[in-house]
Amino acid sequence: MTERPESLSIAPEHSANPELLPIRDVVRLTGVNPVTLRAWERRYGLIQPLRTEGGHRLYSLDDVATIRDISSWTERGVAVSKVGTLLERSRPTQNDSSLRVADTSVSVVDFSEASEWLEWQRSIRQALAAFDEDGLEQLYGQIFSTYPTSQVFGQVLLPLWHELRHQTGFGQLSQWLFYDAFLRARVLQRLQFVRRGARQCVLLAALPDQCRELELLVTGLLLSGDHGAIRVLPLGQPLAEMPLLCQAIQPRALVFFAPAPPSPPLLGQLNKLALAIDCPMALAGRGAELVAAKLKDTPVANLGDEPRLMLSRLMQFLAGHLDT
């Protein structure tokens, strides 16, 4: 069934709040199709959009953030029926909400910014449809000159990357491959520039089967900050051979990117690995936050999942001021 465009006329009780998005814009921002959005609402109760007088759905920016979280979990193999529990565990409690807001203010957005991000994505789509690398390069530079790195990837580039990855129309896979290769090349370039001349580095690796290369590279860029030196290991790096790499490279620390919570057996492997290498070890990403309680009293530190928080904790960790 084709989704009918939804009206922007808002019921009187919601007219005072302009920070509401119709479903077509939510689809563009998240890459999740309307049928799936309705299923997450009706069948699982994961999102609760408001309605216009005509019954059309209107989504808040919090809804958009939740939809992205749900999409992230399901892409990593978590059953939709279990996502609700993960969402509950990942939401800040009253005790830590003020700390999270203070440390992650870069992710707090308003409606005007969301509209601007949609416009950037429309322009990128046009460049991708024409396979216009020069035009894409120009847009890429303009976006970076406008927003912080975390917003460039978190609100503009990666949401579109996720959206195109799930498109099945003729030519859309070619567009996604073109876009993916472009972004990986640019992020690698930035990582190499930041690391240039550094005597020591932090190794960043992915946990098995949890992410794609671009997601790992972007995490490395976010952890680099303005002066960090992050060396990203290839996907598929065997955990059993990590002591060999650490002995040869002598990194300042070994960090694993965990976008989903590691299983108990994998956590056990990581604890053993931390005792087998000569450098400190940590987890970063949403999965690290969700197993934070299990990491206490272990040799593995938790760097969190928000960009500014991850970078701040990494600096503390390297200075020996972050409790594991």
Would you kindly provide a written description of the structure presented here, covering whatever features stand out?
This is MerR family transcriptional regulator. Keywords: DNA-binding, Transcription, Transcription regulation. The chain has 15 helices and eight strands. The N terminus is likely disordered. It is of the alpha/beta class. Helix 10 packs across helix 15. The chain folds into three domains: 80 residues, Orthogonal Bundle (Multidrug-efflux Transporter Regulator, Chain: A, Domain 2), CATH 1.10.1660.10; 79 residues, Methyltransferase, Methionine Synthase (B12-binding Domains), Chain A, domain 1; 120 residues, Rossmann fold (3-Layer(aba) Sandwich), CATH 3.40.50. It is globular, with a radius of gyration of 21 Å.
